[in-house]
Amino acid sequence: MGRKWNNIKEKKASKDANTSRIYAKFGREIYVAAKQGEPDPESNRALKVVLERAKTYSVPKHIIDKAIEKAKGGSEENYDELRYEGFGPSGSMVIVDALTNNVNRTASDVRAAFGKNGGNMGVSGSVAYMFDATAVIGIEGKTAEEVLDMMLEADVDVRDVLEEDNAVIVYAEPDQFHAVQEAFKTAGITEFSIAELTMLAQNDISLSPEDAAQFEKMIDAIEDLEDVQQVYHNVDLGE
């Protein structure tokens, strides 16, 4: 672990905010979550997770409200949740999660983004086994020992609690996402620097400067695709 989550989030938020892509991606994800269950985060856990993530990226309220209202209005727009796996330079591994209303278009676009940038698509399962689904929640202003005490007091199971870049990051099983947040809220903490359900590589790798540059170009091309929601990889880019 130790992926420097604050730096990654700030870099992504800054990049995406310039084109408002992040808002469009969250709008789509909120709509899908609200449409699949009740449009109320208190009774729809998936929606609640997305809204907590959106909060850490400062997604405007009107974007959130518009997506939920669209779901409430019975929109017939439907999206498929897809996962692609692939490889980049020097054995680097990538997982791509997408929401799409055109499966053929998305598959073609993702394959092209890999292929034009030194990578290639893999079959299902070729990469995911090297990653662990993980809840990652971070706060500022506390020590790791204080946060661990909060988790123990609330009887919440966690994988690890680490201090990273002036924040304390809790790593836990995905089904403990809400339990970790509730433990923080019970302790009077309601603001999170990170609140993600992610895929963490079991082992990170380092690339040569040339391969790293090509890898970043490939990741940028994939993230630029309209249908792509999340991209996970096993490369330590030294952020």
From TrEMBL:
Residues in coiled coil: none
Ranges of residues in domain TACO1/YebC-like N-terminal: 3-74
UniProt keyword annotations, A-Z: Cytoplasm, DNA-binding, Transcription, Transcription regulation
Main location: cytoplasm
Domain TACO1/YebC-like second and third intervals: 79-235
GO biological process entries: regulation of DNA-templated transcription
GO terms for MF: DNA binding
GO CC terms of this entry: cytosol
Location of this chain's protein in the cell: Cytoplasm
Any one Pfam family match given in the protein's UniProt record, by short name: Transcrip_reg
Listed SUPFAM superfamilies: YebC-like
Keyword Transcription carried by entry: yes
The family this protein is said to belong to: Belongs to the TACO1 family. YeeN subfamily.
Protein name: Probable transcriptional regulatory protein D3873_11740
Organism: Paenisporosarcina cavernae
